[in-house]
Specification:
Elements lengths: L2 E5 L3 H10 L4 E6 L2 H10 L4 E4 L5 H8 L4 E4 L3 H13 L4 E3 L11 H6 L3 E3 L8 H12 E14 L14 H9 L2 E5 L2 E5 L6 E5 L3 E7 L6 H4 L5 E8 L3 H10 L8 E3 L2 E3 L1 H13 L7 E13 L4 E11 L8 H18 L7 E3 L2 H4 L2 H13 L4 E7 L1
Length: 379
C-alpha cells in the first residue's frame, strides 16, 4: 500500500482521493477545513490535512513523506504548485490545467528524477492519450476533439452548470483559441466558428473554438490539422458573447460609489450561484474524438471514440469528476505500479503512446463504467 497526498478537495480532487483510497493510504488536503470535513464524512478511510499550497515551505514539508502527489488545485495556482512539488523531488499527477506551458518544467523534473504526468483529465487528458497511441501506428492527418460537461436539466438563460469555479470557465471563454490548420497554427477568439453537432444520447449541441489543444501543439507538430471545440446546449454561446462584448469579463477595475471593483470579479460572483452545480444534481459529459490518417497498410481510416457519461447515483459522484478524476487515478496507479517510470514532464499523449499504458487507461475507466466506444471506417 502506497502513501498518496491529493492537493485540493474540490469536486474532482475529492473523487480522486476516494477512488485511490480503495487501494492506497490517502491524505486529502485543502485550505478549507469545512470542505475536508464534508468529504471525510463521505469516505471515513481518508486522512485529511489543512494546507495552504501557496506557502511553499509548508507544501514541501507536507508532501515529503508521500510516495506520490496528485495536484488538483485551481488553475491559477497550478504551475507554481507543480514546480514546488518537482523541487521537492516527488512524483506527481497533475490536473490543475494551468495556462502556463508545463513543458517549461521538463528539465527541472529530469534533474530531480521526477515523473510528472500533467493535464491528466478528460480533455485535456483522455483525448491526448488516444491521440498518442494512434500517432504510433498511423500517419495522422486530422485530429478533432469535441467535449463538454452539461446539466441534464436546462435552466434558462445559460443552460449550463459548472463543476468548477466560474472564473475558470470564463477563462476558457476569453483566452484566444489556438488550433492547427494545414500545418500552421491559427489563433482565433474563443466562442467563434459555432457549429451544430448531433449526438445520439443528448441531441443537438453547439460547438465553438476553445484553447484546448495545449501540449499537442508542441508535441505533435507533424499533424497538419488539429482542433478542439467545446460543446454547450444551443443558445449558450450567444448569451456569453453578450456578457463578453458588454465588458462583464474585463479585469480593469471600475469605480462604483467610491469603491473599485473588477467587472470580472463581479460577474464571477453573480454566475457562481447561477452556474453552481448542486451536490447531487444530475449532469453529463459528452466527448467525440475523431482521428483521420493512413495506417501501416496504406489504408485511409477514420477512427472515432465517443464518450457519454452521467452522474453516478450510487457513489454520488458527478460525471465530470468521474471522467476527469479517474483518468488521473489511472495515471497515479500506472506510476506507482512501475508501468510508467520515465523522468520528466509528460503530457498524456507521451504516456498513451505506449500500448500498455493506453490499454491500462481504457480498462481502468471501463471498470468504473466510464466507457469510450470506438468505431472506424475506411475513407
Amino acid at each position: 500500500m502506497k502513501r498518496i497526498i491529493v492537493l485540493g478537495a474540490g469536486m474532482v480532487g475529492s473523487a480522486i482521493a476516494i477512488d485511490l483510497s480503495k487501494k492506497h493510504q490517502v491524505t486529502l488536503s485543502d485550505f478549507s477545513t469545512e470542505v475536508l470535513d464534508k468529504v471525510q464524512k463521505k469516505c471515513n478511510s481518508l486522512n485529511t490535512l489543512h494546507l495552504d499550497v501557496t506557502r511553499n515551505e509548508s507544501l514541501k514539508n507536507a508532501i515529503k513523506e508521500f510516495d506520490l502527489v496528485v495536484c488538483a488545485v485551481p488553475g491559477f495556482l497550478g504551475f507554481q504548485t507543480l514546480k514546488n512539488i518537482i523541487e521537492a523531488k516527488k512524483d506527481v499527477v497533475d490536473i490543475s490545467f494551468f495556462s502556463e506551458n508545463s513543458l517549461d518544467l521538463n528539465d527541472l523534473a529530469r534533474e530531480n528524477k521526477v515523473t510528472a504526468i500533467v493535464d491528466c483529465g478528460v480533455a485535456p487528458g483522455m483525448d491526448n492519450i488516444i491521440l498518442g497511441y494512434y500517432n504510433e501506428i498511423m500517419k495522422i492527418t486530422d485530429f478533432e476533439c469535441l467535449v463538454g460537461g452539461l446539466p441534464k436539466k436546462k435552466k434558462w438563460p445559460f443552460s449550463y452548470k459548472a463543476p468548477f469555479s466560474p472564473i475558470d470557465v470564463i477563462e476558457e471563454y476569453t483566452r484566444p483559441a489556438r488550433y492547427v490548420e494545414h500545418g500552421k497554427m491559427v489563433v482565433r477568439e474563443a466562442l467563434t466558428d459555432c457549429e451544430y453537432i448531433d449526438f445520439d444520447e443528448v441531441g443537438t449541441l453547439e460547438s465553438f473554438n476553445s484553447d484546448g489543444l495545449r501540449s499537442i501543439i508542441f508535441t505533435m507538430p507533424h499533424i497538419p490539422n488539429m482542433k478542439e471545440k467545446t460543446l454547450r446546449y444551443p443558445g449558450h454561446v450567444e448569451y456569453v458573447k453578450v456578457l463578453k462584448e458588454s465588458g462583464f469579463f474585463n479585469t480593469t477595475p471600475i469605480k462604483i460609489k467610491g469603491q473599485e471593483i473588477s467587472p470580472l470579479d463581479f460577474t464571477s460572483k453573480i454566475l457562481f450561484d447561477e452556474w453552481k452545480l448542486g451536490e447531487t444534481e444530475e449532469e453529463l459529459t459528452v466527448m467525440r474524438i475523431t482521428i483521420k490518417g493512413e495506417n501501416s497498410d496504406g489504408e485511409h481510416k477514420e477512427i472515432v471514440y465517443d464518450l457519454y457519461d452521467e452522474y453516478c447515483n450510487e457513489t454520488q459522484t458527478s460525471s465530470m469528476a468521474r471522467c476527469t478524476g479517474y483518468t488521473a487515478t489511472a495515471a497515479a496507479n500506472l506510476v506507482l505500479g512501475g508501468l510508467f517510470n520515465e523522468k520528466g514532464v509528460f503530457p498524456p499523449e507521451l504516456v498513451g503512446k505506449h500500448e500498455i499504458c493506453f490499454n491500462y487507461f481504457l480498462n481502468y475507466l471501463k471498470e468504473r463504467n466510464v466507457i469510450y466506444r470506438k468505431r472506424s471506417r475506411s475513407i
